[in-house]
Specification:
This protein has three helices and seven strands; from the N terminus they run ββαββαβαββ. With 176 residues, the protein is α+β, with helices and mostly antiparallel strands. The chain has a seven-stranded mixed beta sheet. The structure holds tetrahydrodeoxyuridine.
Protein backbone atom coordinates (compact mmCIF):
# COMPACT_ATOMS: atom_id res chain seq x y z
CA UNK A 1 0.00 0.00 0.00
CA UNK A 2 1.23 3.49 -0.87
CA UNK A 3 0.00 6.78 0.52
CA UNK A 4 -0.67 9.82 -1.63
CA UNK A 5 -1.43 13.29 -0.31
CA UNK A 6 -3.32 15.75 -2.49
CA UNK A 7 -2.81 19.30 -1.30
CA UNK A 8 -5.05 22.23 -2.31
CA UNK A 9 -4.32 25.82 -1.27
CA UNK A 10 -7.37 27.96 -0.58
CA UNK A 11 -7.20 31.73 -0.04
CA UNK A 12 -9.73 33.11 2.46
CA UNK A 13 -11.12 36.22 0.71
CA UNK A 14 -11.74 38.15 3.95
CA UNK A 15 -8.53 37.52 5.82
CA UNK A 16 -6.49 36.75 2.70
CA UNK A 17 -4.94 33.95 4.71
CA UNK A 18 -4.11 30.80 2.87
CA UNK A 19 -5.40 27.48 4.07
CA UNK A 20 -4.09 24.15 3.08
CA UNK A 21 -6.40 21.18 2.56
CA UNK A 22 -4.75 17.79 2.59
CA UNK A 23 -6.48 14.79 1.09
CA UNK A 24 -5.05 11.40 2.05
CA UNK A 25 -5.42 8.70 -0.59
CA UNK A 26 -4.31 5.10 -0.09
CA UNK A 27 -3.19 3.21 -3.19
CA UNK A 28 -3.44 -0.59 -3.25
CA UNK A 29 -2.73 -3.30 -5.73
CA UNK A 30 -5.68 -5.67 -6.22
CA UNK A 31 -3.88 -8.41 -4.27
CA UNK A 32 -3.27 -6.13 -1.30
CA UNK A 33 -7.01 -5.53 -0.80
CA UNK A 34 -8.92 -7.51 1.78
CA UNK A 35 -11.38 -10.15 0.54
CA UNK A 36 -14.45 -7.91 1.05
CA UNK A 37 -12.99 -5.00 -0.93
CA UNK A 38 -11.82 -7.34 -3.70
CA UNK A 39 -15.39 -8.68 -3.99
CA UNK A 40 -16.82 -5.16 -4.11
CA UNK A 41 -14.37 -4.16 -6.84
CA UNK A 42 -15.24 -7.36 -8.76
CA UNK A 43 -18.96 -6.49 -8.61
CA UNK A 44 -18.24 -2.95 -9.88
CA UNK A 45 -16.14 -4.40 -12.73
CA UNK A 46 -18.90 -6.89 -13.65
CA UNK A 47 -21.42 -4.05 -13.70
CA UNK A 48 -19.50 -2.27 -16.49
CA UNK A 49 -20.86 -5.05 -18.73
CA UNK A 50 -24.42 -3.95 -17.80
CA UNK A 51 -23.74 -0.33 -18.75
CA UNK A 52 -25.79 1.28 -21.53
CA UNK A 53 -23.31 3.66 -23.11
CA UNK A 54 -23.87 3.69 -26.90
CA UNK A 55 -22.92 7.40 -27.11
CA UNK A 56 -19.77 7.75 -24.99
CA UNK A 57 -18.72 4.09 -25.17
CA UNK A 58 -17.43 4.62 -21.63
CA UNK A 59 -18.85 1.87 -19.43
CA UNK A 60 -18.95 2.51 -15.71
CA UNK A 61 -20.01 0.13 -12.94
CA UNK A 62 -20.54 0.75 -9.24
CA UNK A 63 -21.17 -1.47 -6.22
CA UNK A 64 -22.37 -0.25 -2.84
CA UNK A 65 -21.82 -2.27 0.32
CA UNK A 66 -24.62 -1.58 2.80
CA UNK A 67 -24.56 -1.78 6.59
CA UNK A 68 -27.06 -4.69 6.41
CA UNK A 69 -24.54 -6.74 4.42
CA UNK A 70 -26.35 -6.35 1.07
CA UNK A 71 -24.48 -5.20 -2.01
CA UNK A 72 -26.40 -2.99 -4.46
CA UNK A 73 -24.99 -2.46 -7.94
CA UNK A 74 -25.56 -0.17 -10.91
CA UNK A 75 -24.08 1.13 -14.14
CA UNK A 76 -24.26 4.25 -16.28
CA UNK A 77 -27.39 4.55 -18.40
CA UNK A 78 -27.23 6.93 -21.34
CA UNK A 79 -29.94 8.44 -23.49
CA UNK A 80 -30.20 9.98 -26.98
CA UNK A 81 -31.18 13.15 -25.13
CA UNK A 82 -27.77 13.21 -23.47
CA UNK A 83 -28.53 14.99 -20.15
CA UNK A 84 -31.29 12.47 -19.43
CA UNK A 85 -28.70 9.75 -18.83
CA UNK A 86 -27.26 8.97 -15.41
CA UNK A 87 -23.84 8.00 -14.07
CA UNK A 88 -23.22 4.63 -12.44
CA UNK A 89 -22.66 6.14 -9.00
CA UNK A 90 -25.99 7.95 -8.90
CA UNK A 91 -27.89 5.01 -10.42
CA UNK A 92 -26.45 2.82 -7.66
CA UNK A 93 -26.89 5.16 -4.71
CA UNK A 94 -30.42 6.22 -5.68
CA UNK A 95 -31.34 2.57 -5.99
CA UNK A 96 -29.68 1.64 -2.68
CA UNK A 97 -31.35 4.54 -0.84
CA UNK A 98 -34.75 3.74 -2.43
CA UNK A 99 -34.56 0.05 -1.66
CA UNK A 100 -33.09 0.45 1.85
CA UNK A 101 -33.86 4.04 2.94
CA UNK A 102 -32.60 3.62 6.50
CA UNK A 103 -29.45 1.63 5.81
CA UNK A 104 -26.04 3.28 5.56
CA UNK A 105 -23.79 2.76 2.55
CA UNK A 106 -20.46 1.72 4.05
CA UNK A 107 -18.41 1.57 0.86
CA UNK A 108 -18.79 2.36 -2.84
CA UNK A 109 -16.55 0.81 -5.48
CA UNK A 110 -16.30 2.23 -9.02
CA UNK A 111 -14.78 0.71 -12.15
CA UNK A 112 -14.78 1.78 -15.81
CA UNK A 113 -13.88 0.52 -19.27
CA UNK A 114 -13.15 2.87 -22.16
CA UNK A 115 -14.06 2.40 -25.80
CA UNK A 116 -11.21 -0.06 -26.34
CA UNK A 117 -13.16 -2.34 -23.97
CA UNK A 118 -10.30 -2.37 -21.46
CA UNK A 119 -10.49 -1.26 -17.87
CA UNK A 120 -9.00 2.19 -17.36
CA UNK A 121 -5.43 2.37 -16.20
CA UNK A 122 -5.77 5.25 -13.76
CA UNK A 123 -8.80 5.11 -11.49
CA UNK A 124 -12.02 6.67 -12.80
CA UNK A 125 -13.01 9.47 -10.46
CA UNK A 126 -16.67 10.40 -9.96
CA UNK A 127 -18.06 13.57 -11.59
CA UNK A 128 -19.01 16.57 -9.46
CA UNK A 129 -22.75 15.82 -9.45
CA UNK A 130 -22.11 12.26 -8.26
CA UNK A 131 -19.82 13.52 -5.49
CA UNK A 132 -22.62 15.77 -4.25
CA UNK A 133 -25.08 12.85 -4.26
CA UNK A 134 -22.52 10.63 -2.50
CA UNK A 135 -22.17 13.31 0.19
CA UNK A 136 -25.91 13.40 0.87
CA UNK A 137 -26.17 9.62 0.85
CA UNK A 138 -23.32 9.48 3.38
CA UNK A 139 -25.11 12.08 5.57
CA UNK A 140 -28.30 10.00 5.45
CA UNK A 141 -26.41 6.92 6.55
CA UNK A 142 -24.70 8.76 9.40
CA UNK A 143 -21.34 7.06 8.94
CA UNK A 144 -18.36 7.52 6.62
CA UNK A 145 -18.72 6.04 3.13
CA UNK A 146 -15.39 4.61 1.94
CA UNK A 147 -14.69 5.05 -1.75
CA UNK A 148 -12.73 2.54 -3.84
CA UNK A 149 -11.70 3.65 -7.33
CA UNK A 150 -10.44 0.88 -9.58
CA UNK A 151 -7.65 1.29 -12.11
CA UNK A 152 -5.41 -1.40 -13.59
CA UNK A 153 -2.38 0.52 -12.27
CA UNK A 154 -3.78 0.68 -8.73
CA UNK A 155 -6.84 1.12 -6.56
CA UNK A 156 -7.45 4.37 -4.70
CA UNK A 157 -9.15 4.28 -1.34
CA UNK A 158 -10.63 7.42 0.20
CA UNK A 159 -11.97 7.13 3.71
CA UNK A 160 -15.03 9.40 3.28
CA UNK A 161 -16.84 11.47 0.66
CA UNK A 162 -15.50 14.82 1.95
CA UNK A 163 -12.08 13.70 0.73
CA UNK A 164 -13.52 13.76 -2.81
CA UNK A 165 -15.36 17.03 -2.23
CA UNK A 166 -13.44 19.49 -0.04
CA UNK A 167 -15.25 22.70 0.98
CA UNK A 168 -18.51 20.98 0.19
CA UNK A 169 -22.02 22.43 0.38
CA UNK A 170 -24.41 20.62 2.70
CA UNK A 171 -27.81 21.27 4.30
CA UNK A 172 -25.92 22.70 7.32
CA UNK A 173 -24.78 25.63 5.15
CA UNK A 174 -28.39 26.84 4.87
CA UNK A 175 -28.93 27.02 8.61
CA UNK A 176 -29.21 30.48 10.19
N1 LIG B 1 -19.79 8.36 -15.99
C1 LIG B 1 -20.13 7.63 -14.89
O1 LIG B 1 -21.05 6.80 -14.93
N2 LIG B 1 -19.41 7.81 -13.77
C2 LIG B 1 -18.30 8.59 -13.68
O2 LIG B 1 -17.68 8.62 -12.63
C3 LIG B 1 -17.85 9.37 -14.83
C4 LIG B 1 -18.75 9.36 -16.00
C5 LIG B 1 -20.53 8.11 -17.23
C6 LIG B 1 -21.46 9.20 -17.68
C7 LIG B 1 -21.52 8.93 -19.17
O3 LIG B 1 -22.47 7.89 -19.40
C8 LIG B 1 -20.15 8.38 -19.50
O4 LIG B 1 -19.60 7.91 -18.27
C9 LIG B 1 -19.21 9.38 -20.13
O5 LIG B 1 -19.13 10.55 -19.38
Amino acid sequence: MQSLLYICNIKDTETMKERKIEIPVKVYTYDELNEGDRQLIDRAKEMTYHSYAPYSRFSVGAAALLANGETVCGSNQENAAYPSGLCAERTTLFYANSRYPDVAVKALAIAARNESGKFVQSPCSPCGACRQVMLESQARGGEPMRILLYGTSGIYELSCVEDLLPLCFTAADMEV
